[in-house]
């Protein structure tokens, strides 16, 4: 009570002691809370800046729901009032931020929200810093209401980064002007996509270029505080560049800057550089630049003393891996695995398994890699990994004999890990006949080798080996008697484990009474496993933590798609095999399409409704989705759409007239999405030219989680439009309806064709009819950079033909558009005019509509 009385004092020291006591010791349920609230209201209304500051500090310190109910409506008025002093504005902004974080539902959005944005223009940088913290938090939940903050934040950031250290003396920290405010502004800009206004976008690009340029300048001080402040701004700027993923020049420059930090003596900088480069590796524009640092990253893996830095190095090697460097990276990760810290061994095993499968051109290399993995770190090889090698060996006829020979040789080691025995037992039981012609691996030798491991294994492995033995009875009649003796022994028929006992009894009886034909039918070779997504990838994501929206970024890093999918096999058993399905192509599109759920749609425009109830009206395309669509013309992976609730990421692969697209739906909120229904919509014309098959999606998406949908694609004939993806769901009782164009365009079915100069121009002349050529002369929309232009033409799908055009400044390409009904050859020529900042694009194909469509798509890229 004495403390409450002190609040009524007009002396600062007494009032301060009263507020201090209340902030620390008074419970929010105290009977005195009403008296305290009245005293705080009096101080807020007093217009005395000192007393107002004390009251605001007390509210923020207590931060209870009762405080929010009492003052959440008052504090915004103090914040935006014209006569409020700067120090009080700072306190009011931070106090409101505290209440919003504890009780967001009690802080009303109103007229003050538009006025608080203009605090970014305040002359007092302390007010701007506090307001930026508040706006960033509010914008994460209500981005549309604070969209106007983007231009103001860019303007303020521009003034800071272009100022000299003497211009902002009160807010310059070791020669770095306003580093805390710069970081906060950059974080605020990460709440939004790149600005649509060209002037604002250009100014932001200048700011980011200036920050990157300053990072190259010699340090103005040798003190660690200077480098810390400078690097804090730099890393936040790089995070913004990665978030926007739209400026190739900035992405490559950011990568080069981070590369310089990889060998820095400061451990924290090396860690942050590796972490940021992991994200950069997911961008189509900077992936190649990241790959140039592979030797430095491998060296860090070998020599780095800090385990957390080594783990980031492993992550970066995984992110930068592609077909060109997969053997080198997998070999280095296997080498490191022998001495790796126990805490990260399982993660490395999963990553090696994923990379070996994803980029295996020669599957004998894949088999060798997985067996080596089991030898080095068998204890950390989960069931998903050895299941996966079984799936791939069974599904690929060309590797079965090699796999049988390799596991047979591996099993001859005196000490074998149990996982190797499982793999060996399964493969020899299926394909041991392929190596039985060699006396060194005769049927009896194979059986004796496996049985020598039997007594050292656990019960599940023994059960698998018993299944292998009965398979041998069918494959090798000459060892039937030997195997029956083993099955007849007391150690099997009277085994304490009921599973082993039952298998021994049933297998013995089967081998005794069944005819040769029945044995051949029951014990025939396992059929190919159905194509399905790899479970190893799911295991890796589970190990990383619960599914979050950042998982979309992981998905972007996985630049190839799983092309050898299949569910986990059960251990080999005597169960009757189902009818084998034909070997699916690499993309798995030969599989039978899923049965439609429910009645067919009445509208001809609705292609497929993914296991949903009747859909509501389709929303118009989301703002900005057309720009994102254009970005995907020359790339296959990335974030297609993002708002405050939902993030949609894509990962896709195309081969000839077939394609597969993985769509990742991320819930950015903490609340469940209910009745989540994605639907693909095509016009009548598009339906006849493009076949899409989808798999169902869970109708409930937990807060912070993501779900994946697979779309199988077949190009039947050339097409002009793109399908629309409509997503409908309920969030917090509110119906949400979002539509975006799905970037499935004609150029995705391009296959590059290499041609000599003479062949190119001979074919060029053959396509000289007016209806076969389309030409477009247009102004450059982006900087005319030669390397970026080359990358875009290659990303478009055609082969880039070097030294073909007489003018070395021109770009020429060739390729074939594949569809189910026909193949259409395509030649292109791009002539840049640097002086006029213009391009002339000429496309020639045997079909006018194809020339027109490809010209439209490619013109938008430059």
From TrEMBL:
<dbReference type="GO" id="GO:0030122">
    <property type="term" value="C:AP-2 adaptor complex"/>
</dbReference>
<dbReference type="InterPro" id="IPR013041">
    <property type="entry name" value="Clathrin_app_Ig-like_sf"/>
</dbReference>
<protein>
    <recommendedName>
        <fullName>AP-2 complex subunit alpha</fullName>
    </recommendedName>
</protein>
<feature type="domain" description="Clathrin adaptor alpha/beta/gamma-adaptin appendage Ig-like subdomain">
    <location>
        <begin position="630"/>
        <end position="743"/>
    </location>
</feature>
<dbReference type="GO" id="GO:0035615">
    <property type="term" value="F:clathrin adaptor activity"/>
</dbReference>
<dbReference type="InterPro" id="IPR002553">
    <property type="entry name" value="Clathrin/coatomer_adapt-like_N"/>
</dbReference>
<keyword id="KW-1003">Cell membrane</keyword>
<keyword id="KW-0168">Coated pit</keyword>
<dbReference type="InterPro" id="IPR016024">
    <property type="entry name" value="ARM-type_fold"/>
</dbReference>
<dbReference type="InterPro" id="IPR003164">
    <property type="entry name" value="Clathrin_a-adaptin_app_sub_C"/>
</dbReference>
<dbReference type="InterPro" id="IPR017104">
    <property type="entry name" value="AP2_complex_asu"/>
</dbReference>
<comment type="subunit">
    <text>Adaptor protein complex 2 (AP-2) is a heterotetramer composed of two large adaptins (alpha-type subunit AP2A1 or AP2A2 and beta-type subunit AP2B1), a medium adaptin (mu-type subunit AP2M1) and a small adaptin (sigma-type subunit AP2S1).</text>
</comment>
<dbReference type="InterPro" id="IPR008152">
    <property type="entry name" value="Clathrin_a/b/g-adaptin_app_Ig"/>
</dbReference>
<keyword id="KW-0254">Endocytosis</keyword>
<feature type="region of interest" description="Disordered">
    <location>
        <begin position="545"/>
        <end position="604"/>
    </location>
</feature>
<dbReference type="InterPro" id="IPR009028">
    <property type="entry name" value="Coatomer/calthrin_app_sub_C"/>
</dbReference>
<keyword id="KW-0472">Membrane</keyword>
<dbReference type="Pfam" id="PF01602">
    <property type="entry name" value="Adaptin_N"/>
</dbReference>
<dbReference type="InterPro" id="IPR012295">
    <property type="entry name" value="TBP_dom_sf"/>
</dbReference>
<dbReference type="Pfam" id="PF02296">
    <property type="entry name" value="Alpha_adaptin_C"/>
</dbReference>
<dbReference type="InterPro" id="IPR050840">
    <property type="entry name" value="Adaptor_Complx_Large_Subunit"/>
</dbReference>
<comment type="similarity">
    <text>Belongs to the adaptor complexes large subunit family.</text>
</comment>
<dbReference type="GO" id="GO:0006886">
    <property type="term" value="P:intracellular protein transport"/>
</dbReference>
<dbReference type="InterPro" id="IPR011989">
    <property type="entry name" value="ARM-like"/>
</dbReference>
<dbReference type="GO" id="GO:0036020">
    <property type="term" value="C:endolysosome membrane"/>
</dbReference>
<dbReference type="Pfam" id="PF02883">
    <property type="entry name" value="Alpha_adaptinC2"/>
</dbReference>
<feature type="compositionally biased region" description="Low complexity">
    <location>
        <begin position="571"/>
        <end position="592"/>
    </location>
</feature>
<dbReference type="GO" id="GO:0072583">
    <property type="term" value="P:clathrin-dependent endocytosis"/>
</dbReference>
<keyword id="KW-0813">Transport</keyword>
<feature type="compositionally biased region" description="Pro residues">
    <location>
        <begin position="593"/>
        <end position="602"/>
    </location>
</feature>
<keyword id="KW-0653">Protein transport</keyword>
<comment type="function">
    <text>Component of the adaptor protein complex 2 (AP-2). Adaptor protein complexes function in protein transport via transport vesicles in different membrane traffic pathways. Adaptor protein complexes are vesicle coat components and appear to be involved in cargo selection and vesicle formation. AP-2 is involved in clathrin-dependent endocytosis in which cargo proteins are incorporated into vesicles surrounded by clathrin (clathrin-coated vesicles, CCVs) which are destined for fusion with the early endosome.</text>
</comment>
């Amino acid at each position: 009570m004495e403390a409450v009385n002190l609040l009524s004092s007009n002396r600062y020291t007494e009032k301060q002691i009263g507020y201090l006591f209340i902030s620390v010791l008074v419970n929010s349920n105290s009977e005195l809370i009403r008296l305290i609230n009245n005293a705080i209201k009096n101080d807020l209304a007093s217009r005395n800046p000192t007393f107002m500051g004390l009251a605001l500090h007390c509210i923020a310190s207590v931060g209870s729901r009762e405080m929010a109910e009492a003052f959440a409506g008052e504090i915004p008025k103090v914040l935006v009032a014209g006569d409020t002093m700067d120090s009080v504005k700072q306190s009011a902004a931070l106090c409101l931020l505290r209440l919003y974080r504890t009780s967001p539902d009690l802080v009303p959005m109103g007229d003050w929200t538009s006025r608080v944005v203009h605090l970014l223009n305040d002359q007092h940088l302390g007010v701007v810093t506090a307001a930026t913290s508040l706006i960033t938090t509010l914008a994460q939940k209500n981005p549309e209401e604070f969209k106007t903050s983007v231009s103001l934040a860019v303007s303020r950031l521009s003034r800071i980064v272009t100022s000299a250290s003497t211009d902002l003396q009160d807010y310059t920290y070791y020669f770095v002007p306003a580093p805390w405010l710069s970081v906060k502004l950059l974080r605020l800009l990460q709440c939004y996509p790149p600005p649509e206004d060209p002037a604002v976008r250009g100014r932001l690009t200048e700011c980011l270029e200036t920050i990157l340029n300053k990072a190259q300048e010699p340090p103005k001080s040798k003190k660690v505080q200077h480098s810390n402040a400078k690097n804090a701004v730099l890393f936040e700027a790089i995070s913004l560049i990665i978030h926007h993923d739209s400026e190739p020049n900035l992405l490559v420059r950011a990568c080069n800057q981070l590369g310089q930090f990889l060998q820095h003596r400061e451990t924290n900088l090396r860690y942050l550089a590796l972490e940021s480069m992991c994200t950069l590796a997911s961008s189509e524009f900077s992936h190649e630049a990241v790959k140039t640092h592979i030797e430095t990253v491998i060296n860090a893996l070998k020599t780095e003393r800090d385990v957390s830095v080594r783990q980031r190095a492993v992550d970066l090697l995984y992110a930068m891996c592609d077909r060109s460097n997969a053997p080198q990276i997998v070999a280095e990760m296997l080498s490191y695995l022998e001495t790796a810290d126990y805490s990260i061994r399982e993660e490395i095993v999963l990553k090696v398994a994923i990379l070996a499968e994803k980029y295996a051109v020669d599957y004998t290399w894949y088999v060798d890699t997985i067996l080596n993995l089991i030898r080095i770190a068998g204890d950390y090889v989960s069931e998903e990994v050895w299941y996966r090698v079984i799936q791939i060996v069974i599904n690929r006829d060309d590797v079965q004999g090699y796999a049988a020979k390799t596991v047979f040789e591996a099993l001859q080691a005196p000490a074998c890990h149990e996982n190797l025995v499982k793999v060996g037992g399964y493969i020899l039981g299926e394909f041991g006949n392929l190596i039985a012609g060699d006396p060194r691996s005769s049927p009896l030798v194979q059986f004796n080798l496996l049985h020598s491991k039997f007594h050292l294994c656990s019960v599940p492995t023994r059960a698998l080996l018993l299944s292998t033995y009965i398979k041998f009875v069918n494959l090798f009649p000459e060892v039937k008697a030997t195997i029956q003796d083993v099955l007849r022994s007391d150690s099997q028929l009277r085994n304490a484990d009921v599973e082993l006992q039952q298998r021994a009894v049933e297998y013995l009886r089967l081998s005794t009474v069944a005819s040769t034909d029945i044995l051949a039918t029951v014990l025939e070779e396992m059929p190919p496993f159905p194509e399905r997504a790899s479970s190893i990838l799911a295991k890796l994501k589970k190990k990383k933590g619960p599914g979050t929206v950042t998982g979309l970024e992981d998905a972007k890093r996985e630049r190839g798609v799983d092309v050898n999918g299949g569910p986990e096999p059960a251990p080999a058993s005597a169960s009757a095999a189902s009818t084998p399905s034909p070997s699916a192509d690499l993309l798995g599109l030969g599989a039978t399409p899923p049965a439609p759920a429910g009645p067919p749609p009445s509208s001809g425009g609705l292609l497929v409704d993914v296991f949903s109830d009747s859909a509501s009206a389709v929303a118009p395309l989301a703002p900005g989705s057309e720009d994102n669509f254009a970005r995907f013309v020359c790339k296959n992976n990335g974030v297609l759409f993002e708002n405050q609730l939902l993030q949609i990421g894509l990962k896709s692969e195309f081969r000839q007239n077939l394609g597969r697209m993985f769509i990742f739906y991320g819930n950015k909120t903490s609340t469940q999405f209910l009745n989540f229904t994605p639907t693909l919509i095509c016009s009548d014309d598009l339906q006849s030219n493009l076949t899409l098959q989808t798999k169902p999606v869970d109708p409930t998406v937990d807060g912070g989680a993501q779900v994946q949908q697979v779309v199988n694609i077949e190009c039947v004939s050339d097409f002009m439009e793109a399908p629309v993806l409509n997503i409908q769901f309920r969030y917090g009782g509110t119906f949400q309806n979002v539509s975006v164009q799905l970037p499935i365009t004609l150029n995705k079915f391009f296959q590059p064709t290499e041609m000599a100069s003479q062949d190119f121009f001979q074919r060029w002349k053959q396509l000289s009819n007016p209806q076969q050529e389309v030409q477009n002369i247009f102004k450059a929309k982006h900087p005319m950079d030669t390397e970026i232009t080359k990358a875009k033409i290659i990303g478009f799908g055609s082969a880039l033909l070097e030294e073909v055009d007489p003018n070395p400044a021109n770009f020429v390409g060739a390729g074939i558009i594949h569809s189910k009904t026909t193949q259409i050859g395509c030649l292109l020529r791009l002539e840049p005019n640097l002086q006029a900042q213009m391009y002339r694009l000429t496309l020639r194909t045997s079909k006018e509509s194809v020339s027109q469509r490809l010209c439209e798509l490619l013109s938008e890229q430059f």
